[in-house]
Design brief:
The protein is α+β, with helices and mostly antiparallel strands and 191 residues long. It is 36% helix and 33% strand. The protein starts with a helix and ends with a strand.
């Protein structure tokens, strides 16, 4: 369970850090498109977080789980509160699933001394896929405080993010598939 918690925290942290870094450098290049948020509310509660925890434990030795936006968001928010840095605060994280796409939105409070500022609403959108048993992320849109990240920077950060995810995946588990549909994500882990 500890590995699952850190893998989930690592995924969200890597996504948000990628967007923060990209947005911090966005002034160097122009272009890019800010992601749009889905127009639906995601309920966050302790019961949904516990259901997600139970589901992750269920696939520790292989299997398939299907999580709702509410379960996934509630679980990640709980994990983030346990792993926050003193210098960076991530709050109000919400995750939406649309066919083939994932969108994350959070409020980020970066270090007070950071220049340029790394604080504001952060939105990251893209897709997930499995290659060679590892989760691969392709962020195609990101913004911080309404400033869109150019595509050229997103490509650089996607490469770094996927290298980081490969390093995080020390659990020995091989991911077989990930399917994102309206409101749900299905993960299958090899036995």
């Amino acid at each position: 369970m500890e590995r699952t918690r850190w893998a989930a925290f690592g995924l969200v942290s890597a996504l948000l850090l990628t967007a923060v870094l990209a947005c911090s450098l966005a002034g160097l290049l122009t272009g890019g498109k800010a992601p749009q948020l889905p127009g639906r509310t995601v309920a966050v509660n302790q019961q949904a977080a516990q259901e997600a925890k139970d589901a992750f434990q269920q696939i520790a030795n292989g299997g398939r789980i299907k999580l709702s936006e509410s379960q996934f968001t509630s679980y990640l928010r709980e994990q983030l509160t346990q792993g926050q840095s003193e210098n960076v605060a991530i709050t109000d994280l919400t995750v939406w699933f649309d066919p083939g796409r994932i969108t994350l939105r959070a409020n980020l409070q970066g270090p007070q001394t950071a220049q340029p500022s790394t604080s504001g609403e952060i939105i990251v959108a893209g897709n997930l896929q499995v290659q060679g048993g590892l989760l691969k992320i392709k962020i195609d849109q990101a913004s911080l405080a309404g400033i869109a990240v150019p595509g050229a920077l997103l490509n650089l950060f996607n490469d770094q993010l996927n290298r980081s995810l490969a390093d995080v995946n020390q659990s020995g588990h091989s991911l077989k598939s990930v399917v994102i549909e309206q409101g749900y994500i299905t993960l299958e882990v090899a036995e």
